[in-house]
Amino acid sequence: MKLAFIGGGVMAEAILGGVLAAKIAEPGAIHMGEPRPERRQALTKQYGVHAFSDNLMAAHDADLVILAIKPQDLPSVFRQLKGHLSPQQAALSIIAGAKMSTLSQGLGHPAIIRVMPNTPAQIRCGMSLWTCSKEVGRPLRDATKAILGTVGVEIHVEDEKYLDMATALSASGPAYVFLFIEALIDAGVFVGLPRDMARTLALQTVLGSTRLVMETGKHPGELKDMVVSPGGTTAEALQILEHRAVPGAVVEAVNAAYQKSIKLGQG
Ligand SMILES: NC(=O)c1ccc[n+]([C@@H]2O[C@H](COP(=O)([O-])OP(=O)(O)OC[C@H]3O[C@@H](n4cnc5c(N)ncnc54)[C@H](OP(=O)(O)O)[C@@H]3O)[C@@H](O)[C@H]2O)c1
Questions:
Q1: Beta strands 112-116 and 126-132: pairing type?
Q2: Ligand 1 and 69: CB distance under 6 A
Q3: Which residue has the least CA distance to atom 46 on ligand 1?
Q4: What is the CB-side half-sphere exposure of residue 221 using CA atoms within 13 A?
Q5: Distance from the CA of 22 to the center of ligand 1, in angstroms?
Q6: Which of 102, 132, 158 finishes a domain?
Q7: What is the pLDDT of residues 69-119, one digit of tens each?
Q8: Which range of residues forms the domain containing residue 97?
């Protein structure tokens, strides 16, 4: 299959790496539209793809045109591509906040796929939620599933409303988890652990706990209760976290991100 990336930044490179590793497309069948000459050169040298300064040349002939630019660069890309996509092509956008209707109008094209990925896609451990317009045929839906599957877990939804919710939970989510990990490491140092040891303990604890929830299928609350012995150390710590309303703050934070995502989508 032929792919075109418009924007050759961090997220485009993550997806490109997954696609090439899974041999979904050959390097020669991948075009990148990217304004910076040194970035074009680096992508060509490292991956063997074709890189163009002209987005229209990059998009020409591709089955899927993947928009991986920042939201502020979307108007200029619309000006370049509007009306130039053929009925066989679909546009796949990973741009936060860009709604299906905005993309369809801006490109003058009805076949649109909207994806909300996250940064762990860089290590093929990402989470992507996606939806598409009815004009996207089965082969390109299957291709989208396969492409996103190369960089992690993907879930297709019919209703676009879930994209704002995923923005708040899984797309912004790595930042919440990094904040918690950082605090855990600092806490380890506070009680006397050397920093590198605190880092190893914190990271393995977060990784192991996540895998335990996934692999046992148990409710996190049940697994939490198994760690808490009456009158013990964990109960002491959890009492502080509850007292400081950490669970409620997490809900409030995710809801604030959700509301912001809706507002940004309204322009
Ligand atoms: N990072 C995340 O956590 C995350 C998660 C979900 C979704 N997203 C979305 O993914 C998109 C890309 O994010 P990113 O982190 O990969 O950004 P990035 O690294 O800044 O990549 C954007 C790339 O697009 C290039 N570009 C700028 N104007 C262009 C134009 N007119 N035509 C073609 N290319 C152009 C940029 O080049 P220059 O550097 O020269 O400007 C840059 O290489 C964003 O819309 C973001 O909302 C990101």
A1: antiparallel
A2: yes
A3: 95
A4: 1
A5: 23
A6: 158
A7: 999 999 999 999 999 999 999 999 999 989 999 999 999 999 999 999 999
A8: 3-158
